[in-house]
Specification:
The protein is an alpha+beta fold. The protein has one domain (59-332). It has helices at 5-10, 12-15, 22-35, 51-57, 93-96, 106-115, 121-131, 169-179, 183-193, 197-201, 209-212, 230-237, 263-266, 278-292, 305-311, 316-338, and strands at residues 61-71, 77-87, 99-103, 136-140, 214-218, 221-225, 239-248, 251-258. The strands form 2 sheets. Strands 1-2-3-4-6-5 form a 6-stranded antiparallel barrel. A hairpin with a 2-residue loop joins strand 5 and strand 6 (221-225). It starts with a helix and ends with a helix.
Length: 339
Amino acid sequence: MSLNPAAKRVCEGAASLPPSSFERNAMCHFLNLLIETKPIPHSLRDLQDGSLLEQYKQGIVIVECHLGKYYSHSGTIFRRKYYLIRPRPASSTLARGRFTIFINDPIAVMHVICQQWGPHMSNIASQLVAAGIPFSMCILDPAVPVKPVKFCTSALGYLPFDYQLTAGDYTAYLDRAALMKGGIVGWLAQEALGEHADMVIRCSPSNNVLQMGTAIQLGESYYWDDDLVEDEEQLICGVYKMSTGQRHVNGEQIADVSWWPKQSTWEGSGLDVGYWSSDDEAWYQKRLELIRNCGTDSQHLCMNATQWRNTLKYYKETTRTVAANRQSAEVWLDNALRT
């Protein structure tokens, strides 16, 4: 059975299997049904003959699903569905730690279960970073988020009046938050940090997480983690304010142009499949080579949001395939967590 081109990009493992293998045929059938939005037989929802549920029950992590509120830097509150990953009580005391991993994407949660990552939360975090999957690693604190003071941010964001900068702040805050973003921001952070990325992600949230971080509210509990403000994301993606050469009633017209797409442009694009794929890496290396070899002819290398969206369209079916796969994973998790 052949794989739809979009399915190949979403499920690279299927494309690498022998053409006549049972596993490949099952994956092809499953993914093609997803793309066509047709009902999926129960027998295809688990490629290990029903053992995935048993694997989860006997595994070393517990997954919980909660509806929560996300308190952003801007003060906007978003209601979201979160999957919390913790060590099982039977795991070692050392593995329990004080961190909880939050993931939005049910596909990523399924991957954690299938790969049997854990029980140490820091090990799971390292694996998620290496795969380019966005997540948060939060600490529980009774501090209640307050409405932020309105301010105009500079390149590296806002600091409280009495905050004392140290040489370790960059590692403790910006690097760590960037790595957990996934997508283009997370990958650029990995490229910049190299072998130090794993050490950075294992660090605790910064000492100023309650003043500068973001919070997730579950019931009466608040979970805090470092996060990037928009200016910090733009710094990583190489954003400039550039004149368009036109004027309007309020003065000169300015547009954002950047070396790399903004995270908001990357998310939902034809290259965003929820992790850093081989297609993403091929695109990244080609783009990097173009930048390095541009010489003095760099006028058109930085692009605005519209140009980036057109550049990242790629395969129009990819987004639909990812959405269908995500829905299927969500159904499986909902059923598994009720048993």
